[in-house]
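Request:
You are asked to prepare a plain-text protein record giving the amino acid sequence and the C-alpha cells, at your earliest convenience.
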Amino acid sequence: AGIVGAGGNTGAVCFGLGFRQLEYKAAFMIMGSCIMASSALSLVIFIKGHAGLICGKDEVEPPKEQTLAVPTPDTEKADEVNAEE
C-alpha cells in the first residue's frame, strides 16, 4: 500500500488496473520495475547548492543579516499630503 501510495492517485489507479488486468506475478514485476527505474533516476537529480546522491558537496551560504529598519519620514511629502486637506 505504501509503495502504490507513493505514486499518488495516478500510481494507485495504474497499479490497481494492473492487478485487475494482469496476473499477480506480471503486475508485481511491472510495479517493481517502475520502482527500481524511478530509484535509479534519483541518482541524476541535482539541486543547485546541494550535493547529489553520488557526487558534489553542499554550498553553505552564510546567513544574511536581516534586521528591520525604521523608515525615515519624508517631511516634504507629508507636508504635501497635509496641505491638500
